[in-house]
Amino acid sequence: MRGDAVHSFDWTVVQVLASLDRLKLAERTLVVLTSDNGGTLDANGPDLEHGGTPETNKRPSAQRPVRAGKGSPYEGGTRVPFLVRWPGHAPIGVSGELICHVDLLATFAALDRPSAAFRRRARQLQRAARAAPGEARHAVP
Prior knowledge:
Blueprint: H1 2-22, E1 31-34, H2 75-78, E2 82-85, H3 104-110, H4 116-130
Antiparallel strand pairs: 1-2
């Protein structure tokens, strides 16, 4: 069942991207594909609470080398795909940047003429994020 869902999703994404290209809207359209949490531990069986049964949860996660999966506080439960397509704006490649979904709305809003207050807040957050380990990080109002 999951294979059919993945196949259907993949086909749909290809159709959307091809339509954006055909209509010459790709450079004006930011496409983001992401997920809400890690993958299941039981990739071939029932998707029960926390991704499997007590028996299957004893097996290694399908998203090795990270630990655990859906419903877990470990990396396998929190690391998710984050794919961006925006020709002429977002470079092609892989990034090691940490992204938090709760920041997406503000980030998207900033793409369209951010206010002075928003730019000031963004600079404060950037400074806090760039603080060296052990360096004092002041609370951002």
